[in-house]
Write a structure and sequence with these properties.
It comes from Syphacia muris. This is TPR_REGION domain-containing protein. InterPro entries: TPR-like_helical_dom_sf. The protein is mostly helical and about 400 residues long. It is about 55% helix and about 0% strand. It has helices at about 15-25, 50-55, 70-75, 90-105, 120-135, 140-145, 160-165, 175-185, 195-215, 220-240, 245-260, 260-280, 280-290, 300-310, 315-325, 335-345, 350-360, 365-380, 380-395, and strands at about 80, 85.
Length: about 400
């Protein structure tokens, strides 16, 4: 099996010392299995939302039926609702990765046992790890990543399998897996260790870029430069998590200064403004919101950040005027949610409740949490009201939602 020619440059990766130690011997030793992953839990992830609907409302929630393959996995991860794409049934997707990896010999109980590593198995692991991170199942993520060590084992390289891949060289490991592998350490007791992995990842990406400049097309160089930006954004996210706010903002500013796409540059400006607001950095907050232009495809975001400036100074009525002047669209839950929050802080509880109950088509977690919270302030028959909100929305929500956000037990 050979990688498709057009994507060969995406498989380039510096050879590790561990690889060199076995493939460049006079008689290469290519029989050993170094990387032996396996599923670490034999308990399927529950659909807690569907279970609660059955318990509380005697209602059966029908989830999508998909083929048990990678196409089915993609269908579960992204669903369409009212014409919009949104994150889908991620818990079901994790369960499907369990089945697919089990079928390939890397299921429960197989960690530490030899199995065949292929492009397909690594793609499935990369997908599974991203799902576990999205669902915040960090302990399981860390346990299952242990088998991959530092992603430098000989059997992670194409050249370790000359009978299968001929003279091709490169890595079997998807770049998305490398990103998760580096970031996962910030959810452990040693979050600073993530920076060390990010350092190594960035160093390797820069080495590949130098190689591409000498041997490949502009397209290949551009692809790897985008990957470098992804690593730098990962570093900035991790620095924010570690409360290194100045370093985080400096790095995001550097990324923004090199960004050529105006929409992406605008998004980074807004991100920097929000970080500055969170840490109370008035000077940088005003700097990044200076001269906002409506000449963008996402005018709602511009209005939202103009309103944020008023919120920063406690001017909630002015913020509400800014949001209202945007011509609120039913599908823009961000604007509706922020408008309602401004009403709350202005003492207009009933108006805020009216927005939460009527003015959105696609429910999302912040909106629903706020809807429940406002009802706690206004409703007399609170228990029944929460059950009613749950019943009205449960069929619109994917299995990644936690029913506890409805506070049904209180």
């Amino acid at each position: 099996m050979q990688a498709q020619k057009w994507e060969q440059h995406l498989l380039d990766w510096p050879e590790s010392e561990r690889l060199k130690a076995v493939v460049y011997l006079e008689v290469p030793k290519l029989e050993h299995c170094y990387t032996m992953p396996g599923i670490k839990s034999d308990v399927p992830l529950e659909d807690m939302l569907a279970n609660k609907a059955n318990e509380l409302l005697q209602k059966t929630i029908v989830r999508p039926s998909v083929p048990p393959n990678q196409d089915g996995l993609r269908e579960l991860i992204v669903v369409k609702f009212s014409g919009f794409q949104m994150l889908g049934n991620l818990r079901a997707a994790v369960n499907l990765t369990t089945k697919l990896l089990t079928d390939l010999g890397q299921g429960y109980g197989m960690a530490g046992q030899p199995s065949m590593n292929t492009f397909q198995t690594f793609e499935l692991w990369a997908c599974r790890f991203q799902l576990l991170m999205a669902l915040k199942l960090y302990n399981l993520l860390s346990d299952e990543l242990l088998a991959f060590e530092e992603l430098d084992a000989p059997d992670l390289y194409i050249q370790y399998y000359p009978q299968a891949y001929g003279v091709d060289k490169g890595t079997l490991v998807p770049f998305s897996l490398r990103l998760v592998h580096a970031e996962s350490l910030r959810f452990t007791p040693y979050p600073w260790a993530a920076i060390k992995r990010i350092d190594a990842l960035e160093d390797n990406v820069r080495r590949v870029i130098e190689y591409e400049k000498e041997n490949s097309s502009d397209e290949a160089i551009k692809a790897w430069e985008l990957r470098l930006v992804a690593v730098q954004k990962l570093r900035a996210r991790t620095l924010y998590f570690l409360k290194e706010y100045n370093l985080c903002m400096m790095l995001y500013s550097r990324i923004m200064s090199k960004e050529e796409d105006e929409e992406k540059k605008m998004s980074l400006r807004f991100l920097l403004a929000r970080i500055a607001a969170i840490v109370g950095d008035e000077r940088n907050f005003l700097h990044f919101l200076k001269n906002l232009s409506y000449d963008t495809n996402d005018k709602g975001t511009v209005y939202l950040h103009r309103a944020l400036k008023s919120v920063f100074y406690g001017q909630y009525n002015k913020a509400l005027e800014t949001i209202s002047s945007s011509g609120l669209q039913p599908e823009d839950a961000r604007l509706w949610n922020n408008a309602a929050v401004c009403m709350l802080y202005s003492g207009r509880l009933s108006d805020a409740l009216n927005i939460y109950e009527k003015c959105y088509d696609i429910p999302n977690e912040p909106l629903l949490v706020n809807l429940v919270s406002v009802n706690e302030l206004t409703s007399r028959d609170l228990k029944q009201k929460k059950v009613s909100i749950f019943g009205e929305n449960v069929e619109k929500l994917s299995d990644m939602f936690d029913p506890s956000m409805f506070k049904l037990s209180s």
